[in-house]
Design goal:
Blueprint lengths: L1 H6 L8 H31 L3 H9 L1 H27 L3 H35 L5 H16 L2 H15 L3 H24 L9 H26 L14 H32 L4 H37 L3 H28 L1 H6 L5 H14 L3 H16 L3 H27 L1 H4 L2 H25 L7
Helix pairs in contact: 2-3, 2-8, 2-11, 3-6, 3-11, 4-5, 4-7, 4-10, 4-11, 5-6, 5-7, 6-9, 7-8, 7-9, 8-9, 10-11, 10-16, 11-12, 11-14, 11-15, 12-15, 15-16, 15-18, 16-18
Length: 456
């Protein structure tokens, strides 16, 4: 019996609190480093000019779309691979891994094409300011045309997560982030004999860091990930496997892509007032990543545990993992709320905020951060849906929150009550998310978890 347990993946037998901690902590650390370099990127760009900061902020929908498509695909890979391991179908797990790498390459080709053909149009559709257009076009062109680093890095990291080897993700992401942070001032300001590239320098630093992280991730999969075989020799795409990946992954892609639509729409609404308001919204997203990234890291540790134990028919471990994750995420978000409410001026001063930006930003950050009260619960529950193969539930909640509520509410508030009311659309939308998430969580519990008879 002991020998049998030892042969099983740790996701099936290790005590849940210890397992969740060991699976999540490396991801939380690496994602905090990611959040740090996102902020450092903007801090240096802000020293060039407020227009430079605004241009980079306006690029968020494109960067978020890249992450949405690749990470959403990764969610499908993760769920299928972990479930296959839980069901002892090792060949299906390896097939999922190889097809996942193939899909990562396809994602890159699509983004590169957009970068070549659509970078300038993306900015001319939002502003007529020639400096914003020039800065923004340079930035988006570089981060899309050289996006193979982030695409394959994300897929590689998902493969490591699926088999419980999250510690190696910490290495790959940390290396990429450190390289980015080091290169930022050198390339932006032209230090040590390098040319002063300003916004383009920030973009180059970003993609170089991503490519380095990708290389480490792939090497770790080849050398350390023994539960799957990712040898691509003689590879042929498998339609059935790709379909299974996207049954879970497509709703996640759409759900995360909706964030790009929401930010794009909010930027257009905020441009009705000033480009400074757009900068404030961009700064908020940089700052909130310090709070949300640990929760996403927690989720990345949680999803394979739930998927594995769902495949293994272990009801108690599924529920224990879900509730512990919800409690942990809520605690993280409450800490974030306190920081945003009490240290608002200091947070904005990091970005060399002008008096106008400070006046708008203090109000904005304090109002928007009220959404943190409910966000942790909603994020974790959405990932539980994905782990159990019901990504469409997450999609329903996201569409209702970001498209059916935030944008219409923000537009109405802007038209009738002004900029200060626009920010209230976000915490009010989180109440919609809380209600829907709870109803759907109860539904999926009754349909998929309640009647599981555990195999002993």
């Amino acid at each position: 019996m002991i020998e049998e347990v030892q042969k099983e993946n740790k996701m099936g037998y290790m005590p849940v609190p210890k397992l969740l901690f060991t699976m999540s902590m490396p991801m939380i650390i690496s994602m905090l480093v990611q959040a740090l370099y996102n902020i450092v990127d903007s801090v240096f760009v802000a020293q060039v000019s407020e227009n430079a900061l605004t241009a980079v902020s306006m690029a968020f929908p494109v960067q978020n779309l890249m992450i949405a498509v690749t990470a959403g695909t990764g969610v499908g890979i993760n769920a299928l691979l972990s479930r296959s391991l839980g069901e002892k179908q090792t060949e299906q797990a390896s097939l999922a891994a190889r097809n996942g790498l193939f899909l990562g390459v396809l994602c890159y080709l699509a983004f590169a094409l957009f970068g070549i053909l659509g970078s300038r149009f993306f900015y001319t559709n939002q502003t007529t300011d020639p400096e914003l257009i020039t800065y923004g076009t340079q930035y988006v062109f570089v981060v899309t045309v050289f996006s193979f680093g982030i695409c394959l890095a994300i897929v590689g990291e998902r493969l490591l997560q699926s088999t419980g080897l999250t510690i190696y993700n910490m290495f790959s992401q940390t290396l990429g982030a450190v390289i980015n942070i080091v290169l930022d001032p050198i390339l932006i300001f032209g230090l040590f004999g390098f040319p002063r590239l300003e916004v383009m320098g920030a973009a180059i630093a970003t993609v170089v860091g991503q490519i380095c992280g990708m290389m480490v991730s792939i090497i770790c999969n080849i050398k350390k990930n023994k539960e799957i075989n990712i040898n691509m020799r003689g590879f042929r795409p498998d339609k059935d496997t790709i379909k299974k990946i996207y049954v879970v992954g497509l709703p996640s892609i759409i759900m995360q892509s909706i964030g790009s639509v929401m930010v794009f729409g909010m930027n257009k609404i905020l441009m009705m007032f000033s480009s400074t308001a757009v900068s404030v919204f961009g700064v908020y997203f940089k700052l909130q990543s310090f709070i949300f990234m640990p929760v996403f890291g927690l989720n990345n540790g949680m999803v394979p545990i739930i998927a594995y134990n769902f495949g293994a028919r272990r009801k108690k471990r599924i529920l224990q993992t879900a509730w512990l994750s919800i409690a942990s995420a809520t605690g993280i978000m409450l800490i974030g709320l306190v920081v945003f409410q009490t240290q608002t001026t200091w947070l904005l001063s990091i970005f060399d905020a002008s008096p106008d930006m400070m006046e708008i930003g203090v109000r904005a950050l304090r109002v928007i951060s009220l959404s943190f009260l409910f966000a942790g619960y909603c994020i974790v529950v959405g990932s539980v849906f994905q782990a159990l193969g019901n990504g469409v539930y997450s999609l329903m909640v996201s569409v209702a929150r970001q498209l059916l509520f935030i944008l219409p509410a923000a537009y109405i508030f802007a038209k009738f009550w002004g900029l200060e009311m626009v920010w209230w659309a976000i915490p009010l939308a989180e109440l919609v998310s809380l209600t829907m998430s709870s109803i759907l969580f109860l539904r999926i519990y009754r349909k998929k978890i309640k009647n599981i008879e555990e195999d002993i």
